[in-house]
């Protein structure tokens, strides 16, 4: 495990006694059963465990895509219970970045336009948008590809674009769902180094669901889930 991380006083994300169930026909599936979790600025936290253990449910709750049935979730010490859909959308837009296994880039946009899109949505002035997009593309080593479209890039390059897009708006929290699963080992190492470097530089907290053993040694902590409960923390 990484050893250079120092825990700050207040968590960016806090879960206390969180429960979530889903109904599949006549069956009720307990996805989370009383989960407690703290995540701090600049930290990379991995969620591990088999399929169905609750990793994706935690990502959905933390990303305000779903709501808990019981328990308390706080983002930047603000309770998430009872948020209107509008408030949840604005909070996702301004405070949360997403990185996906499938990249989720807009194919008809250039690399620069993909990275610029979150800034356009939150009303950042055009001049500042241009400077921040160029600075972020330079940071991920893709400034020379700014006018290319995603289909002209390799998988590792597209994932770097996705990371740049997630970080350009300077989010409090970045949620990453299997970000290295489709990458070869060398490219995965580069992407993980980039996530750590940029997370520390911008103070973003990373919450990462993964089956990838390569990722665990790059994270500050790992939480193993089983049947909707925390089995161990390392």
Structural summary, described in words:
The protein has a single domain, classed as P-loop containing nucleotide triphosphate hydrolases (Rossmann fold, 3-Layer(aba) Sandwich), CATH 3.40.50. It has helices at 55-62, 85-95, 111-121, 126-139, 155-167, 185-202, 213-216, and strands at residues 13-24, 27-39, 44-48, 70-75, 78-79, 96-100, 173-177, 205-209, 221-226, 229-233. The protein is of the alpha/beta class. The chain is built from seven helices and ten strands. The protein is globular, with a radius of gyration of 17 Å. 34% of the residues lie in helices and 27% in strands. The model has no long low-confidence stretch (mean pLDDT 91). A six-stranded mixed β-sheet has the order 6-7-8-3-9-10. The longest helix has 18 residues, at 185-202.
Q: Got a strand count?
A: 10
The biggest sheet, with number of strands, parallel, antiparallel or mixed sense and barrel status, is:
6 strands, mixed
CATH topology (fold) name: Rossmann fold
User: Please, how many domains?
Assistant: 1
Mean pLDDT: 91
Count every helix, treating DSSP H or I runs of 4 or more residues as helices. Answer: 7
Q: What is the chain-wise order of helices and strands?
A: EEEHEEHEHHHEHEHEE
Q: Identify the CATH homologous superfamily.
A: P-loop containing nucleotide triphosphate hydrolases
Terminal Cα span: 8 Å
Shape: globular
Strand content: 25-35%
CATH class: Alpha Beta
Would you identify the regions where 5 or more consecutive residues have pLDDT less than 50?
Answer: none
Which second-level CATH architecture applies?
3-Layer(aba) Sandwich
Strand neighbour order, sheet with most strands: 6-7-8-3-9-10
Approximately how much helix is present in the residues? 25-40%
Return Rg in Å.
17 Å
Secondary-structure content class: alpha/beta
